[in-house]
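Quick one, tokens below:
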């Protein structure tokens, strides 16, 4: 069946890629702060792995910029907003660590990671959509990048959501499944 692929609006594509790059960079700082707050060993181990993957996703995006001949240091409003939100999340976590209990700081960090990964996931879903439905010399680079990060990005968001839900359950002294079972993670 013939598909109706559309050419990219180049300025719009560049802006979304800049925003995605800034989200990964903010994500690195967010995981570094979240690891200061994490006390559950399984969560520490997951976030440690996600920090490494986020660093690698920054490089995946830099490769896309290189292949498209775009400047990754171009300034724009959206990436500034992402930076400010990221810095705010880091401050919130560090304040919780300084002023709250260890358990509270960990929960606050979990909430901040879920917020950050929700935006990150949204960026990559859009990149995947553009790779599938767009046409132009950019398509191949977008497809390769999306394939490289797709599975890890889903894990970052949905595993952390499950973990945070169970940590909240535990905070009520209700029976919690920590770490979340494989079945719970699949159902997330
Ligand atoms: Fe991520």
């Amino acid at each position: 069946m013939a598909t109706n692929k559309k050419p990219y609006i180049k300025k719009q594509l560049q802006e979304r890629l800049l925003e995605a790059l800034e989200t990964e960079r903010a994500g690195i700082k967010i995981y570094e702060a979240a690891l200061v707050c994490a006390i559950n060993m399984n969560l520490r181990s997951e976030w440690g792995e996600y920090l490494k993957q986020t660093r690698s996703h920054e490089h995946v995006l830099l490769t896309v910029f290189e292949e498209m001949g775009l400047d990754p240091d171009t300034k724009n409003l959206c990436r500034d907003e992402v930076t400010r939100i990221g810095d705010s999340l880091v401050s919130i976590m560090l304040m919780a660590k300084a002023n709250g209990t260890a358990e509270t700081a960990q929960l606050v960090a979990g909430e901040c990671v879920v917020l950050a990964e929700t935006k990150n996931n949204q960026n990559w879903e859009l990149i995947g959509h553009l790779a599938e439905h767009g046409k132009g010399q950019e398509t191949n680079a977008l497809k390769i990048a999306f394939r490289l990060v797709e599975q890890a990005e889903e894990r970052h968001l949905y595993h952390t959501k499950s973990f945070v839900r169970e940590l909240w359950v535990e905070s009520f002294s209700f029976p919690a499944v920590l770490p979340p079972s494989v079945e719970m993670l699949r159902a997330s």
